[in-house]
Specification:
The protein is α+β, with helices and mostly antiparallel strands and about 140 residues long. The chain has 5 helices and 6 strands; from the N terminus they run βαβαββαααββ. The mean pLDDT is about 85.
Length: about 140
């Protein structure tokens, strides 16, 4: 389960309304087919071949670089945006002085993504405080 040559593979949770919306947005901009996606909520998804636990993969966004390196959090976000040709827009989040700030902000978002999805009326599944499950 690695990335194809020249692509970035994003692992995302289709049960997270905000996550699903961003992935849909990125896919529409992927004119060169360089972004692959794997839905971690799909039946049969197993994070073990990636060296990840189910809890870890649900807690944070993960991605797989073309060379097979697994990245998480903002690094995964930057990889996905680069893959679709929009890396320049998100590049400041990786600059030395800003990286720490954006990495911390991402951790807060990741922790509260489900309640934020409900707050913005994007509830498409049964959600508790930390996770969503299919209806």
């Amino acid at each position: 389960m690695g990335a194809m040559a020249g692509t970035f593979t994003l692992l995302y949770d289709s049960l997270c309304p905000i996550c699903r919306r961003e992935v849909d947005w990125l896919k529409r901009r992927d004119r060169n087919g360089r972004l692959a996606t794997i839905d971690i909520a799909a039946p049969g998804f197993d994070p073990a071949p990636l060296g990840l636990s189910a809890e870890r993969v649900v807690a944070r966004l993960h991605g797989i670089e073309a060379n097979g390196t697994v990245v998480e959090g903002m690094a995964a976000m930057r990889g996905a945006w680069r893959a679709v040709g929009l890396g320049w827009l998100i590049a400041p989040t990786g600059w030395p002085l800003l990286r720490y700030l954006f990495d911390c902000m991402y951790l807060v978002f990741a922790r509260y993504r489900v309640p934020l999805g409900r707050l913005f009326g994007r509830r498409a599944a049964n959600c508790d405080a930390d996770r969503c499950t299919p209806r």
